[in-house]
Amino acid sequence: MRKTARAFTLVxxxxxxxIVAILMAMSIAALIGFRESARxxxxxxxxxxxxxxxxxxxxxxxxxxxxxxxxxxxxSCATIxxxxxxxxxxxxxxxxxxxxxxxxxxxxTRLSLDNNYCCTIVEDVDAFGSENxxxxxxxxxxGVLFEYATGDLLRxxxxxxxxxxxxxxxxxxxxxxxxxxxxxINHKKIDFKxxxxxxxxxxxxxxx
Length: 208
Hints:
single chain; about 210 residues; alpha+beta; 7-stranded antiparallel sheet; 4-stranded antiparallel sheet
């Protein structure tokens, strides 16, 4: 006598479908996590690579044609925004509100003993972090500078001092000191982050 094959019950089918759906969801989540972590790694590598290039330009006193076009010795910090001038330092301002990194250029100033640089945002260059709202830059300092004359790496303001704010179309007087700064680049959706160390002592930029 031939045995008939046992059919799945409705409950068993539902259980199998649920298991398959869970496995698919886990696979999709893992793929999304891998893709986003790769995107963050690329962002960190791009930022670090460009920062090293800016540092190298400062060390070797390399200027663009536009920067050489006008040499502005103006001592008033309020007048430099939007002007072409030969910078004494270049670097990044870390915007605590928008959580991104903006390119800046600065001239040295002797207006006071407290502030030794006047900085303005380079408005024709996109900020790091502006292209992806899921990636944010969180820094323990307001900004970093690379001096042209010395090649030194500086941070805005000593640790524990009040913050600096630089808006597009304006400038700010800052105190730049020879101290380290750590920038955390974070992906909000997958809780994945990496740190970039601006090492003042060794004049180096490293991914931690």
